[in-house]
Amino acid sequence: MLLTWKPPMEISVIWVVGFCVLMVAHGAQASSHESSRNLQETDQPYRTGYHFQPPKNWMNDPNGPMYYKGVYHLFYQYNPYGAVWGNIVWAHSVSYDLVNWVHIDHAIYPTQPSDINGCWSGSTTILPGEKPAILYTGIDTKNHQVQNLAVPKNLSDPLLREWIKSPYNPLMTPIDGIDPDLYRDPTTAWQGPDKIWRVIVGSQIDGHGRAILYRSKDFVNWTRIDSPLHSSGKTEMWECPDFFPVSTRSTNGVDTSSQDKYTKHVLKASFNHHDYYILGSYKPANDNFSVETNFMDSGMDLRYDYGKFYASKTFFDRAMNRRILWGWINESDSESDDIKKGWSGLQSIPRTILLSKTGKQLVQWPIKEIEKLRFKNLSFHDKKLKSGSVLEVPGITASQADVEVSFELPNLEDAEILDPSWTDPQLLCSQKKASVRGKLGPFGLLAFATKNLTEQTAIYFRIFRSNHNYIVLMCSDQSRSSVREELDKTTYGAFIDMDPRHENITLRSLIDHSIVESFGGEGRACITARVYPKLAIHEQAYLFAFNNGTSNVKISRLNAWSMKNAQIVSTKNRRKPQL
Ligand SMILES: OC[C@H]1O[C@@](CO)(OC[C@@]2(OC[C@@]3(O[C@H]4O[C@H](CO)[C@@H](O)[C@H](O)[C@H]4O)O[C@H](CO)[C@@H](O)[C@@H]3O)O[C@H](CO)[C@@H](O)[C@@H]2O)[C@@H](O)[C@@H]1O
């Protein structure tokens, strides 16, 4: 039973002792008193077990993730005083493995005229000689957005607990036509072969989303370049841009300053509540970014996630040669629900991100470290999922689970014809919800389901035929996720770039009390949903596979695991900045 389940003694002890040794060695004390898990009681059915959360209060964007001297760092936008947005500081947590975390003192909080009204999003850059530097947006005395620098006080502290702000702050200001309300979120900087640093800042100028480009020789004096790195007339304010290379020939990640004939560049911008990206080729000599497609310009609407996922940020993990993506997953309940819960906001499970084999899009997959939380496996293969059937996946904690399933389609010719007007996958999913019978599909998983299916969150596929091609639609239908009425239950959808004639259709779902992160087609389409079941909580939650199409499908294999709690603890007497 999940409520009483505790991780095996040896795992908690090894991890907490390991981290305490590190913390004590560096003059800090860990305490589980403030453990976020203490809140996971019957009145807190939506608190997660293995997603990153502070013990309480509001959290939004992930900031400045990095790896330094054997320790992963995550900073995040945080309100120390409540469960709604405001009083924003950079909270700071550290980890050995990106799964188990210790919350330590806030890294950056308002102290200077250049950030006295808030320390907003930004990024870290590792400067030569292993010296991390943070560029972040400060809200100054006039409530203008400006860009500031902070560096660690003590580089020999792997926890980097104290940060000193540059006396030269602000380093970049909203002049020459920049709107001081639309100028924020500096990226990780990158160095060209000429040793000059570049950074972009998100903005909107003349109604167009824009990445303002700056250059610097010393990371302190920054010059604005007349031409932006990129801008787009079909978008408005770009929040939290990210710009990084991906390899065209390897699954390894690439350092942000690297670039050669085997790399493409990704530009991500956050707008319209989603994280969109485009691919292109970047030449540092003239800072030219020539794009393959533009934002909102073609049928190719490339997004990191087609559900809830915003203000994301990547970093290059040198230790494991991979690029990792974090994203903020906000709530779908009301502000008054958040105040009652005492918290708001999750971070996604960190995902590795790389270019797909076709080179046309990115693919994402949960970091492999998360698999160490798996226990109690249920596995079967080659099971017919008859038309109209529902099959329980028994024996696991269905409210805190990791499921991988692969579907084989013996009767592809049964696929419905795709109407050419069906170009919007989200609209199509909301018209063809899980309860709407089709031919090949809907088939997939029912998460957070009550035994009688009154409550259910359906993650499923439908297959269509268009001329001689097959189209795979992936949906996440929250319309029956809770008998509570006052929730946002939007249905999400994405097309997956795959040919079901040549490969099975796979789905992996990470289920954690109020979140389902789903990866379709080996990570080619991701959909994250927040749900708040009233009945399907803790041991009353069940997991099913289902097929509501008229054609049979086969589960070629299914693997499901219960997931242990991650150890997420706080240091004793975490300092609360005086505002
Ligand atoms: O913390 C500041 C940093 O966060 C970013 C990106 O997330 O700016 C967020 C912003 O608004 C926060 C706010 O919500 C509004 O914006 C969200 C995301 O853009 C929307 O999803 C939401 O619907 C909007 O209401 O969050 C609170 C509750 O949702 C609400 O009170 C806030 O307005 O912060 C700015 C100040 O509010 C606003 O201009 C931004 O949109 C990043 O850009 C900042 O560095």
Note down, in words, how this protein is organized.
The chain is mainly beta and 579 residues long. The chain contains 3 helices and 39 strands. Strands 1-39-5-4-3-2-22 form a 7-stranded mixed sheet. Strands 27, 29, 30, 31, 32, 33 and 37 form a 7-stranded mixed sheet that branches. It is globular, with a radius of gyration of 23 Å. It binds ligand LEUJYMCC. It catalyses: Hydrolysis of terminal non-reducing beta-D-fructofuranoside residues in beta-D-fructofuranosides.
Percentage of helical residues? under 10%
Q: What is the averaged pLDDT score?
A: 93
Task: Report the total helices.
Answer: 3
Terminal Cα span: 43 Å
Structural class comes to mainly beta
What's the Cα radius of gyration? 23 Å
Secondary-structure map:
Blueprint: H1 9-25, E1 30-31, E2 57-68, E3 71-79, E4 89-95, E5 101-108, E6 119-127, E7 131-139, E8 145-152, E9 163-165, E10 183-184, E11 190-191, E12 197-205, E13 208-216, E14 223-224, E15 230-232, E16 239-247, E17 263-271, E18 274-283, E19 288-291, E20 310-317, E21 322-329, H2 335-341, E22 343-344, E23 346-347, E24 351-355, E25 362-366, E26 374-385, E27 389-392, E28 400-408, E29 416-417, H3 425-431, E30 443-449, E31 457-466, E32 469-477, E33 492-496, E34 505-512, E35 515-520, E36 525-530, E37 542-547, E38 553-563, E39 568-571
Parallel strand pairs: 2-22, 5-39, 29-31
Antiparallel strand pairs: 1-39, 2-3, 3-4, 4-5, 6-7, 7-8, 8-9, 10-12, 11-12, 12-13, 13-14, 13-15, 16-17, 17-18, 18-19, 20-21, 21-23, 21-24, 24-25, 26-38, 27-37, 28-34, 28-38, 30-31, 30-37, 31-32, 32-33, 34-35, 35-36
